[in-house]
Design a protein that fits this description.
Elements lengths: L6 E5 L3 H13 L3 E6 L2 H11 L3 E4 L9 H8 L6 E5 L4 H7 L5 E5 L4 H16 L16 E6 L2 E6 L3 E7 L2 E6 L4 E4 L3 H8 L4 E5 L2 E4 L3 E5 L4 E4 L2 E4 L5 H7 L5
Parallel strand pairs: 1-2, 1-3, 3-4, 4-5
Antiparallel strand pairs: 6-7, 8-9, 8-12, 9-10, 11-12, 13-14, 14-15
């Protein structure tokens, strides 16, 4: 991750195709950590830069082709999108043997690429706010929020609090950015309560580390990012979580 933006590795032996693909990825608002033309260099880049998604041709330089490379790195659970000229059933079937892989045939444009990437992001490691599924199964501790026409990566540790907003929630980050999310606060509570967060009010969930002062007389928590009300029914839970020394 660089600046909370998805990071891509391109594995392609045709430099012209690789540059076109890089420009399309950048135009979609993402970043490219490198372009390589063989499996050995790809493995080095993966270890050094830890890309979020790999764009890969099947026919690449070296002893391993793209499908063989994908099989080798499959335990890393990095989503792969094949971008290849091969459109036959044999290559398609072999590519689909990798559970992390998708498939696009050349030539591609920004729009077909965008559609494929949106699918990969939601399927493999995204925050699927439409279906409210798999939030707890975080990919390396990251969530992907749809912001305008792209997905922004946010690590769970960057979240300070979650505030109810009718059927939506507003997620406040440590950099004071706010993201509106189509996930109810109840769903959030179910998924993050074991991840150092606590619900302190019907409309508020707060990160434990963000709590600075607790005033039970005024029913308020003073956090690193402002005051948060304490709901009556949540006092006992708060008292059980924190250790109070008089």
């Amino acid at each position: 991750m660089i600046n909370n933006v998805l990071n891509f590795l391109i594995v392609e032996d045709d430099i012209s195709s690789a540059i076109d693909l890089k420009m399309n990825i950048i135009e979609l608002g993402y970043q490219v950590c490198g372009i390589v033309d063989n499996a050995n260099d790809a493995i080095i880049h993966i270890n050094n830069y830890k890309p979020d998604i790999i764009m890969m041709d099947i026919d690449i330089n070296g002893e391993m082709n793209g499908i063989q490379l994908a099989a080798k790195i499959e335990p890393l659970d990095i989503p792969i999108l094949y971008v290849t000229s091969f459109a036959d059933n044999e290559h398609f079937s072999k590519a689909n043997e990798n559970k992390n892989a998708g498939y696009l045939t050349k030539p591609i444009n920004k729009y077909t690429l965008s559609t494929a990437l949106n699918y990969i992001i939601e399927k493999y490691f995204g925050l699927n706010v439409a279906s409210n599924k798999n939030l707890a199964n975080l990919f390396k501790g990251n969530l992907f929020f749809k912001v305008k026409d792209m997905y922004q990566k946010v690590h769970i540790d960057e979240i300070i609090m979650i505030v109810a907003d009718n059927n939506y929630t507003t997620v406040l980050l440590e950099n004071e950015m706010k993201i509106l999310c189509r996930l109810s606060i109840t769903n959030w509570e179910e998924e993050v309560s074991s991840l150092k967060f606590i619900r302190v009010h019907r409309g508020y969930i707060i990160k434990l580390d963000a709590v600075k002062y607790i005033d039970f007389k005024s029913n308020v928590i003073i956090s690193t990012h402002g005051d948060v009300p304490i709901g009556r029914s949540y006092k006992e839970q708060i008292q059980s979580i924190f250790k109070f020394i008089k």
